[in-house]
Amino acid sequence: MFVAGYRIPNQPTRKHFKDLVNVIWERNVNSDVIDDIVEFCKSKNPRFNEDLFYQAIEEHPMNDMDESNHP
Description:
- The protein is mostly helical.
- It has helices at 14-26, 31-44, 50-58, 62-65; strands at residues 2-3, 6-7.
- Helices cover 56% and strands 6% of the residues.
- The chain has a two-stranded antiparallel ribbon with strand order 1-2.
- The mean pLDDT is 83.
């Protein structure tokens, strides 16, 4: 799966999830795509924590810079 030019590996790790959060903010990914990313990650990694992922998006440093750019 590719998201805004970022290839999500078949067995994503915490590092990949952190990278995805950055991509989501850098590319201003919409909520429907974010939901698709979450479903994909859950299907590939049984330890994926959906709540933690959404929290990381909310707490991303770019969130403080510009609310209008929020995914």
